[in-house]
Design a protein that fits this description.
By secondary structure, the protein is an alpha+beta fold. The chain has helices at about 5-10, 25-35, 60-80, 85-90, 105-120, 130-135, 145-150, 185-200, 290-305, 305-315, 335, and strands at about 15, 40-45, 50-55, 100, 160-165, 170, 205-210, 210-215, 225-230, 235-245, 245-250, 255-260, 265, 280-290, 320-325, 330-335, 340, 350-355. The chain has eleven helices and 18 strands. β12 (about 255-260) and β13 (about 265) form a beta hairpin. α5 packs parallel to α9 and α8 (about 185-200) runs antiparallel to α9 (about 290-305). The chain is globular, with a radius of gyration of 20 Å. It binds adenosine-5'-diphosphate and magnesium ion. Magnesium ion binds near residues 182, 295, 298 and 299.
Amino acid sequence: MDLKKIIALGLAGIFLLTGCAERREVAQQMLENKKMENRHEATTFAMDTVMSFIVIDEDGDELIIDAEQEIRRLENLLSITLENSEISKLNAAAGKEPVELSNDTMILLEAGKNLGAGTGGAFNIAISPIVKAWGFTEEEHHVPTREELDALLPLTDASDVVFIDASTAYLQKEGMAVDLGGITKGYASDKVASLLKGKGVESAIFSLGGNVYGIGTKPGGEKWEVALANPLDANDYCGLISVEDCAVVTSGGYQRFFEENGKKYHHIIDPVTGYPAESGLLSVTIICESGTEADVLSTALFVMGLEDALEYWQKYGGFEAIFITEAGEVVATEGADACFVFEGSGNDFTYRVVESE
Ligand code: ADP
Ligand code: MG
């Protein structure tokens, strides 16, 4: 994806709307002003995407540097494209030998495998050979043949990712590989949130390539507001989601794709077909306390499509979701509706809420 687009998306990711000052008590305004003096912002590029931070704290600049360091530490462990990452070493040893891994890598592999199993395999950490065949890993895109995909699909069984002991994993078949691209940024957002909270931060919001996490509220006590991107227009949005101490993660086919012979192919793969998921959805946004879970679910529910995704939500709960369909419908679960203001009617989107049964 080109840099301009990534930056536009990153910037569109967070909207901070100021409150109505006239109606506030003078004392509270002064307190707010004091807090706003402590407002620190930064934007950086890591994990192949734009990341932006707003931290309300007198040590905000140093805290953002700490956060960036933590993100780079995780990237060095988990990246599939960095040759010396633990994931690259694990992938290189597939079918040969078990590999000793650090705590974070083990946690993420186990979380990815277990959460993926919970989604019935819609999220699959062993999908890498297919993602690679489409050229998304090295950014050398091309449409693979059906034969190529059929030969690779048997190498994408997540149950072949096995844990020998608490610090050792093994990929049982040669040619297998794990790709944590659909979960790493969510996990990183949880780690950064607990790092900042652990250092006393009570008010912050950050976006790791669209994986947003809001700590506490804005200085005035109002909730943070996150824009729901319009998948058809990078400079537009379909509404605002208010959050307090939770993650908001969006997955969509519009974020990373290429075109061949007039057809678009995006980066979220249906593990059953090996093709980019054609589920009738343009995007899925998950609102939930865990950034890791939100990241997995946004990818998995995109693969499932609206009907199966709503069934999954009804059955398991623990998160809220907003779907945007190819038919132009914005569909919010009951709990998502409670913190969402729909603003997409000007763009011919319609809005519907689904109640829990
Ligand atoms: P992004 O990383 O662009 O925010 P996602 O969180 O939806 O988007 O993750 C997509 C990435 O996850 C892909 O680039 C690929 O590396 C990987 N991936 C693609 N399809 C799947 C899948 N079905 N299950 C798990 N990971 C996937
Ligand atoms: Mg994801």
